[in-house]
Amino acid sequence: MSKQFTYTITDPVGIHARPAGQLVKLTQQYDSDVTLDLSGKTADAKHILAVMSLGVGKGNELTVTIAGNDEDEAARQIESFFRDNL
Questions:
Q1: How does pLDDT run across 6-51, given as a tens digit for each residue?
Q2: How far apart are the C-alpha atoms of 54 and 63, rounded to whole Å?
Q3: How would you class 68 by CB atoms within 10 Å of its CB: exposed for 0-12, middle for 13-18, buried for 19 or more?
Q4: Which of 8, 62, 70, 84 has its CA 20 to 30 A from that of 16?
């Protein structure tokens, strides 16, 4: 099973270098796989270049999927990160 949530980016410049780096650092703390999906383009949230290559801007709706043995805690922390930072 996996956890999934969608989030609409409210940060005026979208997912830029600083929050992307913080997101990668957060996702790397978990064993679970974390995938970002933007209009059919997907990226591994544990790799900064993959996250930045999505080009997520303000108003974009992002789907985040977390799958693995610690997905419940990872999903809570990652969703909280999005609400607080993006």
A1: 999 999 999 999 999 999 999 999 999 999 999 999 999 999 999 9
A2: 12
A3: middle
A4: 70
